Amino acid sequence: MRVLVCDDEQLARDRLKRLVDKIENAEVVAEAGNGREAIIEAQSCKPDVVLMDIRMPEMDGMEAAEHLSKMDNPPALIFCTAYDEHALQAFRVHAVDYLLKPVNAADLTAALNKAKTLNRIQLAEISGEVSEDKPRRRGHISARTHRGLELVPVNCVRYFLADQKYVTVCFSEGEVLIDETLKELEAEFGDQFVRIHRNALVALNFIEGMEMATAGHHQVRLRGVDERLTVSRRHVAGLRRVLQNL
Q: Does the keyword Cell division apply (predicted)?
């Protein structure tokens, strides 16, 4: 069994590696200090199981797990946590494997023996329930491309553009397609993006202005984007109010 260990504390990673080394037919093939590193390592070393800390800088374990679930062959996930009893109940309800810190050998062995992959619905539900104050929000958008699972920082996204069943994500390095809906993206990132059309959300931080186009139509200018995006008539007034408050 190939194991990837992800924890932002080196001492915690070292402890888990020592425990795994003592388990027959299990080996640590990679380690990571945060969720983003775990995704990169998982794509290169193809682990069977990821031992995932939850509270980590840059990208936490819940977000990393959601992205990992989109891989062609996602690894099984075991969360390592110091959460209290109330939060742990959420893990149990959704049948999510977890280990309480400090992890002991017997619990780790049992968890590895029954480790399983988790779907995105499970992960979304558990994520909402263990949030301490406000709902979690991703820091990255993930897309399956010919390069594998590609991570796009949300603060680099210029706009989301819907076209039939996919959404195009335009960001500083290019474009990728995702299978999420604008409604879902607007609900999650509504304070960072504004709807300008039934098929488009644009990033507030990249808006340079709105201008009149031909035949009375309006367009929006975005920093770093050559093309102009159409603003539907029903969204002109709302966008104008937003721009006044920027």
A: no
Distance CA 61, CA 156 (A): 21
pLDDT above 70: percentage of residues in the chain: 96
**Distance, CA of 126 to CA of 90 (rounded, Å):** 6
Q: What residues have CB less than 8 Å from 107, skipping those under 6 apart?
A: 99, 100
User: Interhelix angle for 120-130 vs 85-93, to 10°?
Assistant: 160
Please tell me whether the peptide bond between 102 and the residue prior to it is cis, using omega within 30 degrees of 0.
Answer: yes
Spatial contact of 30 and 45, defined as CB atoms under 8 Å apart: yes
- 29 and 101 Cβ atoms separated by less than 8 Å: no
Please state, in angstroms and as integers, the Cα–Cα distance from residue 221 to each residue in 176, 202, 211, 226, following that order.
21, 10, 8, 8
Single pTM value for the model: 0.83
- Report pLDDT digits (tens) over 21-61: 999 999 999 999 999 999 999 999 999 999 999 889 999 99
- The structural domains of the chain, ordered by start, are 2-130 (3.40.50.2300), 155-245 (2.40.50.1020)
Residue 131 has a pLDDT of 67
**pLDDT of the residue at 134:** 56
Helix 61-68 with 35-45: angle, nearest 10 deg? 30
Q: Return the structure tokens found at 220.
A: 């929006």
Per-chain mean pLDDT for the chain: 90
